Amino acid sequence: MFIKYLVIFLVSMVPLIELRGAVPIGLSPLLGEAIPILPLYITCIIGNMLPVPIIFFFARKVLVWGADKKYIGKFFKFCLEKGEKGGRKLEEKAGSGLYFALFLFVGIPLPGTGAWTGTLAASLLDMDFKKSIVAIMAGVILAGIIMGLASAGVFGAIGAILA
């Protein structure tokens, strides 16, 4: 069982997969029996949030530093542009509700959204660290709830009832 906890913890830390991929793995019999919901969420949230302060304070510096390097420049430029583009979109749409928009951006599990991208956008927009962390954490919790419900088949059942 320790191995499954370790796997979901590490998967939660991976960019683009994050908690959204770890919750279904934890609920599935893929690596043995399913993990109980509460320990699963706690493990996934900790794993997903662990890189956030590092990303917030250092990602921009590293990306700017590496953007003109020979072998890594293209990838670093891509990441920098993606973060800036996401940040600008978020800022345009949100206006004064920027932190609520950040919460929704992280919380609605769509491709390209999540704690990594949201944190990078917050960093590039020079948003307040503490407010950003709260919005990102709340978004991660919301994404976990949505993925847990989706993994448990709740959405499919509701769709079948309403159809």
Describe the structure.
This protein is mainly alpha-helical and 163 residues long. The protein has two domains: 2-49 and 149-162, no CATH class; 52-146, no CATH class. Helices cover 76% and strands 0% of the residues. The model has no long low-confidence stretch (mean pLDDT 87).
Keywords:
single chain, 163 residues, mainly alpha, 2 domains, 9 helices, globular
Total helical segments: 9
Number of domains: 2
Our Rg estimate from Cα atoms comes to 17 Å
Segments where pLDDT lies below 50 for 5+ residues? Answer: none
Q: Look at the helices and sheets and give the structural class.
A: mainly alpha
Distance between the termini: 39 Å
Helical content, roughly? over 70%
Percent of residues in β-strands: under 5%
pLDDT averaged over residues: 87
Largest sheet: none
Count of strand segments: 0
Looking at the structure, what is the overall shape? globular
* Element string (H = helix, E = strand): HHHHHHHHH
Give a short overview.
This protein is 76% helix and 0% strand.
SSE blueprint:
Blueprint: H1 2-13, H2 18-27, H3 37-49, H4 52-66, H5 73-94, H6 98-107, H7 115-124, H8 129-151, H9 154-162
